[in-house]
Each structure stands twice: as C-alpha cells, then as structure tokens.
Amino acid sequence: MARTQGSHSGITGPRVRDAALRLFARHGYAAVSMRQIAGEVGVQAGALYNYTPDKQSLLFELMRGHMEELLAAWDGLPQEGDAMAILEAFTRFHIRFHSERPDAVFIAYMELRNLTPGNFATVEALRRDYENRLEAILSRGVAQGVFRVPEPKIAAMAVIAMLTGVNTWFRTGGRLSLPEVEAIYWDMVRRAVSA
Amino acid sequence: MARTQGSHSGITGPRVRDAALRLFARHGYAAVSMRQIAGEVGVQAGALYNYTPDKQSLLFELMRGHMEELLAAWDGLPQEGDAMAILEAFTRFHIRFHSERPDAVFIAYMELRNLTPGNFATVEALRRDYENRLEAILSRGVAQGVFRVPEPKIAAMAVIAMLTGVNTWFRTGGRLSLPEVEAIYWDMVRRAVSA
DNA sequence: GATTTAACTGAACATTCGTTCATATCAAAG
DNA sequence: CTTTGATATGAACGAATGTTCAGTTAAATC
Q: Rounded mean pLDDT of A104-129?
C-alpha cells in the first residue's frame, strides 16, 4: 500500500522538518531515530529519504535555516536613531524572535557537536555573524560616548547569553507578558553598558 | 585474560567517571557508547558494570556530583559584608568555579533531557537551590536599598545565564586572564542591578 | 481509459547498542 | 602453598540503528 490518500508532495516535506525539529529539541539528535520521525509524520522510515539525503542533512538544514532566518530578520529591521535606540531594538528583537521558536533555538545551541566538521563551520560562521552585529552596535556606542564597555566583543557575548537565557524559563501565558520581559531585560542591558 | 596488571580497585572507578565526563561533554550522552568509555579506560565494556549499574546512573551521578559540589563550594565560602559585597563574591565564585570544570558544566546544562524523570527531578531541584541562593542575595540587596531590580527571580536567571556564558568563549592562556574576566563581568553585573 | 510518474511501503542489509554472565586471572590472606 | 575474593575478559543476547531498493499505489496527464 502506497500513497494511501491524496498527493502529499509539498506537504510531507514540511511535516518531516517539523517533526524532526520537535523531536530533536525534545530528545536530542542522537537519541531520535529516523523511524520515530517517520512515525510522527505517519509514514514509513524509507519515505523520509524523499525529503532528505540523510539524517545529518536534516539536522544541518534545520540549524542553517534558523540562523539565516535570524540574520535576515534582524537585517530586515530599519535601524533608526543612535546606538542606544538600536541596542534597545536589538534587545527586544532578540527576545521576541527567540521566544517564538524555542525548539529551533534549543537545537541551534545544543546540537552543534553533532554536526559534521564542514556543517559545523557553516553554522558557526552564521553565529559569529550575528554576534558581530551586536558587537558593532556596542563599539559604535562606545565611539559615540553613549556606552562604556571595556571589551565590546565580550559584552556582546554576555548580552546574548543573558537574553537567550529567557528561553529557559519564559512560557507564553505565564505571569509576565513578553513586552514586560522585554522591558525588564532592556533595563538590565541598558544599565550594564551605559556610559 | 583478566586483571592484566596489579590491582585496579580504587583507580579504575575514577577513570571510568573521567572518561565518561569527557566523552559525554564532547559527543553527548546518547552518542557515546559504553564500549567507547571502556576503550578510553583501557578495559572491556563488561568491566564498566563493576562501577556503575548502568549508563544512565553514570550520567546521573556525574550531574548530581557536580551540582552538589557547586552548592557545597558556595556554601563553604564566608559571606561577609553587605549585599553588594556578597554579590561580587558570587559573581567571581561562579565564573571561577565554572571555568575550572567546563565538561561538567556542559553536561549539567545539555544532558538534562537524557535523565530519567526521577533523576531529572533531583538535578533540577539542585539547580533551583543554586538559583535561589542568588535570588536571595538580590532580594536582600533590594530590601537594603543597594539594588534596584523589579524581579529578583528573573534577574537571578539573567545573571546566571550571563556568567555561565563565559564558558562558551573563555580559554585559559587566552588574551584575558580569569581575574580580568571576573572584573569585566562584575562591572556589568553591578551596573545592571545597582540602585 | 491508458500511460506515466511521484510517493510510499515493507523487507532487508550490515552494524551497533546496553547489558549479562560463565570463566579466567591475579593479589592478598591464612 | 592454598584459599579466597575482587577484577577483568570475551562471547553472547535481543533489540535497534541508518540506509537502500524493488515493488506497489494512486494521482496527474494524455
């Protein structure tokens, strides 16, 4: 029995990626089998290979796609005002973007070691790109006298770590709304780097 | 052929834990086989079961041991001065303690999902204990008028995330010494929460 | 209605997995 | 020297792994 109902082209592909994303985030790449992913999609394991050449590519494409979305989303925002205004925009953007895709964020941070060396280098370069965006903002602010940080690179790492940490506890529908969380974190970021 | 040279009691056990720690950190719990661990120790896989009832216990004991060491080390420090002084001590302690055991820290953060529910609850409770230590410091500082943070619990999570992030980039022998890193981070933490 | 083709099945492949256990070896105790 | 007990081997277990592929089905095309 094959193709049990209707044409699935263009619909099974996304479903495979969705299932892989959720399962990888929940149990980890190495702990998830192709048969589990297939089971979530409602298909046999062999059918997955119509949508990915192998398991490694499935992971890599999820991570690469996430990082490229992240960069494109930030680069797509208008950057108006001084360094302070842009840093606030970055802070709020980072929290919002990451809180909307907890599974992809989780995978992008936790599964780096399960990438082949070549794939790792690609994803790592994208991550560095993103970190450099923030570092540039901080450096510009220092030059303008708006910020005072001794090491912009380190401050960038510190801010990103702090903001990404929101994902470990924030749940939509909890006590605090996302705008409230943004305000609290922006207050801390601003005070931490202000001149 | 068995016990090929001398008595190994009391020495193989730690070597098993050391190998498991390094391998779990490098490749992830699910991606490491008992045979790999045994190979690192220079022993056959079956021999590991003289030192752990199973693979899961090996992971759990590593994580529990790390968290209990962390709590004991902090609780063992003298807490003198006002909330500001204690927060500085906490900041420097956290950076130093974590930078000294990158593998254990990595595992404690990344392998939570590979614990059985019961083991997870135990480790999670220890983590919450640690977070509560910092939250108490912040709350005390707010009461004393030294700090100004709207949500001590969230501020505690933010500070811990920021400080633990040091492990992602810091390497001994790099451009910055550990005391320099401590100073940079303490400066950011202080400004982020000061009244 | 016949033909084509994308989509999927189900079985099979060689490996590897965690774990168990009968057996062998060596250090220490008597 | 003999006995004992801890320590390790090496083979074996059933189960699960990623991946391949010939064959089957049903939708789309003519």
A: 97
